Amino acid sequence: MALTGTGDTVAAAAAAGHAAAAFNIIQIEHAEAVITGAEAANAPVILQISENAVRYHGALAPLARAALAAGERAGVPVSVHLDHVTDLALVGEALELGLHSVMFDASTLDYADNVKATAEVVARCHAARVWVEAELGEVGGKDGVHAPGVRTDPAEAAAYVAATGVDALAVAVGTSHAMLTRDAELDYGLIGALRRAVPVPLVLHGSSGVSDPGLVEAVGRGMTKINISTHLNKAFTTAVRDHLAAHPAAVDPRGYLGAGRAAVATEVTRLLGILRQDRPA
Asked: Number of helices (H) and strands (E), helices first, in the chain?
């Protein structure tokens, strides 16, 4: 199995009527946990490294190389993706390291500048045969994320894809990054309208805030790539806290990090079962 292109994983999910699962990793234990969980589910998986995680480590290469190495040994297809990047130098580094895809985020720019910047990144990445995701609308832990004005317009989204040549589009339909509760109110009608208007896969960011039934409905309405980060961080941190509470004299990090890793693996397996349910006919 081992490493495979992100585009191949997303295309296969779409053809099967499922969603490709993309989980953000912060450290090597996260990568190992996601792969272990995917192997238990016998499902492909995308490991995502955000620009924020790169800042935390001080460089992309250490975590990216670890993720690629872990993927090479996996028993299921694994892709490694650079998530929410705004730094063009980081895009170049991702290409040099052999990452499979890049999510270039110019969504804070006005429409014309977003199109121009994204089209330039697409041309650069496609020359290296690297898949590109972009964003239109406002997704994130931002004020007003649930206001109608920040939602992605289907006609504008179709024009944006045509103008930029992106391979997938993250859209604003009611989610927000870093949600600690799973009660986001998605606009399912808008998801359906976007699916009908946009010729490339749709990506749901901020999926940690979506309930299990909500994820099933979102996939059924047309979401093809589901990004999850905070939800796994919660599982990891809860397991670490529980381990340290039960073992107050513990000093070996392998004990509590191992507990966190096991908890994430279990939740990844469960979530993959949710995301790979057959869409309603």
From this structure: 11, 8
Rounded to whole angstroms, the Cα distance separating 201 from 207 reads 16
Q: Is the pTM of this model over 0.85?
A: yes
Count of residues making up the chain: 281
Q: How far apart are CA 68 and CA 259, in angstroms?
A: 23
> To 10 degrees, the CA torsion angle through 197, 167, 134, 26?
130
For the cut 90, the answer to whether the pLDDT of residue 141 exceeds it is: no
Check: CB of residue 97 under 8 Å from CB of residue 61. Answer: yes
Q: Which segments within 137-188 are labelled E, that is strand?
A: 168-171
Give catalytic residues, as residue numbers. 83
Torsion of CA 269, 81, 236, 247, to 10 degrees: 110
Q: How many CB atoms lie within 10 A of CB 98?
A: 13
Close Cβ partners of 29 (under 8 Å, ≥ 6 residues apart): 236, 257, 258, 260, 261, 264
d(CA 158, CA 162): 6
CA distances from 175 to 50, 103, 211 (A): 18, 17, 11
Tell me: the pLDDT tens digits for 46-72?
Answer: 999 999 999 999 999 999 999 999 999
What does residue 131 show for φ and ψ, rounded to 5 degrees?
-75, 140
The whole-angstrom separation of Cα 79 and Cα 45 is 7
State the DSSP H helix or E strand holding residue 7, giving kind and residue range, or none if neither: helix 6-16
Distance, in Å, from the CA atom of 26 to the CA atom of 177, rounded to the nearest integer, reads 16
Residue 143: pLDDT over 50: no
Q: Which residues pair with 48 in a beta bridge?
A: 24, 81
Instruction: Give the list of residues 6+ apart from residue 235 with CB closer than 8 angstroms, or none.
Output: 260, 263, 264, 266, 267
| 175 alpha carbon, distance to own chain's centre | 13
Q: Are 84 and 8 in contact (CB under 8 A)?
A: no
